[in-house]
Write a structure and sequence with these properties.
about 170 residues; globular
């Protein structure tokens, strides 16, 4: 005779509470605990990657401005420059978060042989982690790099973006 199971036989809890008589007692699944950050990549490789990413974003922004100039025949005014700044921020987020989630690295990271690895043993980088990494990088850029003073003392120390995201940049 065939053993037929219903949805009641598969509990939705992790086994820590009392189990139903119909369900066999199972050990709870191990949960991934966040471990220490991996060994950080050197600051020089990080700066090379950041420069390449910034160059790509600025190149795309310049192409958009030139296309608008060809279309309208005029350079952007003060209000247009505000939109350009918003576009640069949006484009940098898109050029950072999406590639890190999809490939574990941005264009600049690929050129510098770096990749983002979460501290917990997860398959890939979650979108929230990539977004936090971008916000940490944006905060570092907004302070003119002053937040890197703690990293500059120790070559292997994590940057503010590493600490905020829980995702280290490591060399490949």
């Amino acid at each position: 005779m065939r053993d037929v199971r219903t949805l009641e036989d598969f509990p939705l809890h992790d086994g820590a509470s009392e189990s139903s008589p119909a369900a066999p007692a199972e050990a709870p699944l191990p949960r991934a605990e966040p471990g220490p950050l991996l060994e950080a990549a050197p600051l020089s490789a990080r700066l090379s990657a950041a420069a390449a990413d910034a160059a790509a974003v600025l190149l795309l922004t310049a192409a958009a401005i030139l296309a608008a100039r060809l279309r309208t025949g005029a350079s952007p005014g003060p209000a247009g420059l505000l939109w350009v700044a918003v576009f640069v921020v949006y484009l940098s987020a898109f050029a950072t978060v999406v590639p890190i989630v999809a490939f574990g690295r941005t264009l600049g990271m690929a050129l510098a042989d770096l990749s983002a690895r979460p501290a917990a043993a997860l398959p890939g980088v979650p979108a929230v982690t990539a977004l936090r990494r971008w916000l940490g990088t944006l905060a570092t850029a907004a302070t003119g790099g002053l937040l890197l003073l703690w990293t500059a003392r120790d070559a292997q120390a994590p940057t503010p973006a590493d600490r905020f995201s829980g995702c280290a940049l490591i060399g490949d």
